[in-house]
Amino acid sequence: MWRFITLAFVAFIATSHARDSSEDGIAPGIKKTNCTCGWANRSGKRIIGGQETEVNEFPMMAGLIMRRLYIPGIVDKENIHFCGGTIITHRHVVTAGHCMHDQNGNRLKPKDIGVVLGAHDLRKLDYKNPNVMRAPEKLILHPRYRWQAHYDLAIVVLPYVKFSQIIGPACLPTQRFDVAAKVLKVIGWGFITPQGPGSDILKKTDIIGMSHKQCSLIWGIMPPFEINDPYQVCTYQPGTSQCLGDSGGPILWRDPFTNRYTLVAAPSYGTSTCHTHPCVSSDISYYVPWIQQIISETYPEEKTCAKVD
């Protein structure tokens, strides 16, 4: 019997590492972006096998923290990391819709969570510092959200965040984006094995985009897990282990023309066995109009960044 669980971060322990030109630095490409976005902070050393990121390597990474996790007789802890997210403006973080619910399916309120930015090692954070643990103003769920299998996207609205070298936005797609056969990068504080525990250190690895047709052959026979074009994408890495951790965190594509990272997907779900099925994620390029609508309705002075074609 198949056992499905929400996928947070799909931590593929890759058998090979797909090298790209950005691995040796952060030089801009031949095309510009309309504002600064998608950069990486690297020392020039190469990290093999999809393991620990360099400190503050990905400034767009956000962590969602449950201020208190209480399950009677099981757990009572404070400041538990439970989901990832991606910075897209000074006030907006994109994440998964199911990250807006607790373990019982109840909607979370802004007071229930905090957002950490510029983090690498979760053990070293001062959660009492409001500049570290930022309090959301609003949690906005996609209006058509229906469990993690459909329209699984949300936006966390924050007080103004000052950008720096270690905190800044990902670029957004300028048009519909096909992930099939593309090398993508996923980052997060994901579980190292299916049994956990989660990593305290931010990790990264490369994954491969898969076509809807290929993915549906695997998932489509198991309703309600049919793969829906146009708002979902699949990723996979044959011969590797898939593990769990950061729902809603970034799946990034390095645009070769800008040499900057574009947010292309946010993980939704996978299987508890971690290696039998592809990861299904929300296709960010489909949701850009909704994202822009929310920005306009909350802080219209905020602008997202993207490639200038």
**Stretches with pLDDT under 50, minimum 5 residues:** 1-25, 45-49, 240-245
The level 1 CATH classification is Mainly Beta
Q: What name does the CATH topology carry?
A: Thrombin, subunit H
Give the N-to-C terminal Cα separation.
49 Å
- The amount of beta strand, in percent, is 25-35%
Total DSSP E strands: 14
Provide the structure class. Answer: mainly beta
Query: Would you identify the CATH architecture?
Result: Beta Barrel
Order of strands, main sheet, comes to 6-5-2-3-4-8-7
What kind of oligomer do you see? Answer: single chain
Instruction: Determine the mean pLDDT.
Output: 82
Output the radius of gyration.
Answer: 18 Å
The percentage helix is under 10%
SSE order: EEEEEEEEEEHEEEEH
Largest sheet: 7 strands, antiparallel
Overall shape: it is globular
Task: Report the total helices.
Answer: 2
The overall number of domains is 1
Structural write-up:
It holds the Pfam family Trypsin. The protein is mostly beta strands and 309 residues long. It has one domain: Thrombin, subunit H. 7% of the residues lie in helices and 28% in strands. It has 2 helices and 14 strands. It has a 7-stranded antiparallel β-sheet. Strand 12 and strand 13 form a beta hairpin. The chain starts with a strand and ends in an 11-residue tail after the last helix. The model is unreliable at 1-25, 45-49 and 240-245 (pLDDT under 50).
